[in-house]
Amino acid sequence: YQAKMDFALKLGYAGDQIQAVLNKLGADALINDVLAELVRLGNKSESEGQSSASSSTSTLVPRGPCPKEIASPELSLEDEVVDNSDNLRPIVIDGSNVAMRRVSLHGNKEGFSCRGIQLAVDWFLEKGHKDITVFVPAWRKEQSRPDAPITDQEILRKLEKEKILVFTPSRRVQGRRVVCYDDRFIVKLAFDSDGIIVSNDNYRDLQNEKPEWKKFIEERLLMYSFVNDKFMPPDDPLGRHGPSLENFLRKRPVIPEHKKQPCPYGKKCTYGHKCKYYHPERANQPQRSVADELRISAKL
Predict the structure, then answer these.
(1) pTM, 2 dp
(2) Which of 77, 97, 173, 189 lies most in the core, judged by the most C-beta atoms within 10 Å?
(3) How many domains does the chain contain in total?
């Protein structure tokens, strides 16, 4: 009896509910039967609460000018902030990474697809983002060569006129092209503007330059994929226990996260990151790579 009581308490059920179920089914009942009865009671109480709430609200007479706020203040707040572009983070797109990624997905080993950049920009514009910057090396404006083809090159000029695309500097010295490191432009602008980096590159060399850049890249890098001609970022950019994509793109999260079932073992869980339940004590811990774990253990 006590073992079943403790197990149900760890799952978050109230003591009086558990005691009522055990008195009804008996102390010899199987744990699965006890849990099934607890779930049934929980659903029943929720439905009764919703019906009583609806009956009580139906008798209320709205006196304000906007009944929508009285009926659902959470929804009205969400709609207001979603439409407000000031709450959306600036977007910094790694143009070379996006263009090369789309070409590789279409089966070509080499090339530069300006169409992929346009697809990524359109996706963020549809989401309501106004502050979008794309970095592309300036030598991509040059005429396309057979060994490095560039498709839809006019898109670069169009985005530059719209003040969305920025060419990183490059010049020729004695017939040799000198190119500035565009990745540093991308990370620096995103860090200074507190924005989001759109790229499938991890920027490991830049992570080693500055500790603050390392933490920023780990928390603000938005990876993506192309499905035919559809730009698709993940719904969980920071993993299963991180924020949703909608909240990840915002300065202040407004859409409530789905409630995750907490692990019944709590801090005593031995499954580590493989545990499928939610661990609140691990929510703010960044996912370290194996190499970082080895460096930390070596220092200790």
Answers:
(1) 0.59
(2) 97
(3) 3
